[in-house]
Amino acid sequence: MSKRNSARSPEAQAYFEQYSGQALAIPEAAQLKQFRIDTRDGFEPYVQRALNAYPVTVEDVEIAGVSCKQVTPPGWSEEEGRCVLYAFGGGAVSGSPYEDLIITLPMAHFAHARVISPAYRLAPEFPYPAALEDISAVYESLLQSTGEQRLVVSGESAGGNLALALMQKLAARGAGLPRCAALLSPWCDLTGSGDSHVFNDNRDPSLNNQWVDVAAALYANGAALDDAGISPINGDMNGLPATIITTGSSDLLLSECLRLARKMRVAGVSCDLRVWEGMWHVFEFYNDLPESQQSIIEIADFIRAHS
């Protein structure tokens, strides 16, 4: 048993002790269909907990030809309310807006925002840049209907990658940027560089290097992993909106989150980096932990303050 980390809640400490160092199911291409089913089933209790906890409306909608989950809090105004475009995680090879109700429901509630989560296409059936094309199409439609002054872009892990790459594309062509962004443990460097890929490998209970290396290869489909479209940490940060980044000291991707925050600040971007001691990759997904809700509340506060 690991030595107790007093920074974690008892619930988070118990989870860390149980799952840190355990083998993770790897998203091998031949077994992806079952992997996706198993992942969804594994998070089903968390989804149901979120559905029972927040008084919001969940609808299936289509935007720019892309199926989306739309989450709307009571009293939200079409004319004045803010809107969050949220990209789910899963290494660009698994996941869906359904699993991400775990995050989009409390985000909609606490930020008092409509949250749109596109069901973007997944690799390897649809490798890069298919997912980015889908996210971009939905954003362009929301830009027309909502306006950049009330738009926010967010996402976790691979979704954080897509959110960042989207903003860089928009900035490069002088298009309307969102008011702010919220990136949860963004997977922004698919080369797997950084110290945390050494000291948090097989320590982070939700992610390891073997997992991300397999997913990265499937997503890139032979393209260079350091290409800025695939690893947006290598892209231009100039002109991006105020951004909050959350991670944890046990996050496999901690290093790239730290490097991303520094690159943003060097470029003059207002970046609020929140590193949660002892927490792991996208710990916000585990909504039975006090840290999960507190982090989403802080993200929601940031969104409300900047949009």
Proportion of strand residues: 15-25%
Low-confidence stretches: none
- C-alpha termini separation: 44 Å
* Secondary-structure content class: alpha/beta
- Total of DSSP H or I helical runs spanning 4+ residues: 9
Q: Specify the biggest β-sheet.
A: 8 strands, mixed
Could you say which overall geometry the principal axes of the C-alpha atoms support? globular
Tell me, rounded to a whole number, the average pLDDT. 96
One letter per element, helices H and strands E, the order comes to HHEEEHEHEHEHHEHEH
Helix content: 25-40%
Total beta-strand segments:
8
Descriptive labels:
about 300 residues, 9 helices, 8 strands, about 40% helix, eight-stranded mixed β-sheet, alpha/beta
Report on this structure.
By secondary structure, the protein is of the alpha/beta class. The protein contains nine helices and eight strands. An eight-stranded mixed beta sheet has the order 1-2-4-3-5-6-7-8, with helices on both faces. Helix 3 (101-111) links the parallel strand 3 (83-87) and strand 4 (114-118). The longest helix has 22 residues, at 32-53. The mean pLDDT is 96.
